[in-house]
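USER: Fancy drafting a protein?

ASSISTANT:
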Amino acid sequence: MQNRIQQLFNIQYPIIQAGMVWCSGWRLASAVSNAGGLGIIGAGSMHPETLQEHLQKCKAATNKPFAVNVPLLYPEMKEIIGLLVQEGVKIVFTSAGNPSTWTGHFKEKGITVVHVVSSVKFARKAEQAGVDAVVAEGFEAGGHNGREETTTLVLIPMVREAIEIPLIAAGGIASGRTMLAAEVLGAEGVQVGSRFAAATESSAHEKFKNRIVDAGEGETLLTMKQLTPVRLLRNKFFQEVQEAEKRGVSNEEMEKLLGKRRAKLGMFEGNLEEGELEIGQVAAAISKIQPAADIVKEIWGEYERLKRELCQK
C-alpha cells in the first residue's frame, strides 16, 4: 500500500535524494529515480544554461519522475523558473526563502511544490502558502541549516502535529533504521543527503567523497550562524571561520572570507583545506562510496526487515 508521498510523486519507495549543490547533477538524480526513489537536481550551483543541460540529460537518462531543488534567494530566479516551465519539470523543491513568493505560480503551471523548513513556524507558513508537502530538516543535516538547532527527533513530531499535508523527514537519515524511526515520528518519506553525496554518480569530487567516508564522529559543526548557518567538516577554512567568529567580525568581513567559490572549491574541485565542505553529522556512519541504486536498495531492504521484526515482537 502506497503512502501519500509515494502517491504524490508516483515513486516506488518514499526515499528522496536531497538537492545538494555541487553533488546533485543529472547522473545522480536519474540514478536515484531509476532505482525507485525520487532524484533531485540541485539548481543552487547552476546558471540557467547549465541547469538546462542537466534537465535535458536527466530526461534522456530516465523516464521516471525527478525533481529540481531551487533556493528561492537565487539571483537568476526568474530565468530559472521560466526554464523549469519550458522544460516541463513536474516537481520542484524550494528552500531558503519565502514559499508564498512562487508557489502559486508553480501550481498554476501544474507543478508539484515541496518546501524545506527547519521549524514548526515555517512549516505552517509553507502549508499556508499552498505547498503540496514539507521537508522538515533537523539540526543534524549538512549544508545550510536552521538557527534553532532543533534535532530531527524533536522537529518531526512537532511538525507532524502542526500541519496536515504530507511530511518528509531530513537530517541524520542514511539507513533503513533511521528511515523507520522517521516514520514512527510521523514522516511519510525521508530525504537523504550525505549518503548520496558520496554515491558513485554524485558530481562531487572523489577527494570530497573519500573525505566523507573517512569522517569520524564529531568532525562536523554548524557554523557561520550570524550570516547563514552551515554544517561543515573541519579543515583549514573551517578553522579560519571559527577564529573570525571568535573575533566578532562583521557580516561583511565574514562574507569576504567566505567568498563566492568556497563551496565549489571544496566539494566540486576537491580542495579539502581551502574549500567549504558541507556534510551532515551522519557522515560518521558512511563507510563506502557506492552506486545510488545500491543505496536505495539497502535503505529500503533494511527498513522492511526491521519493520517486520518489530511487528513480530
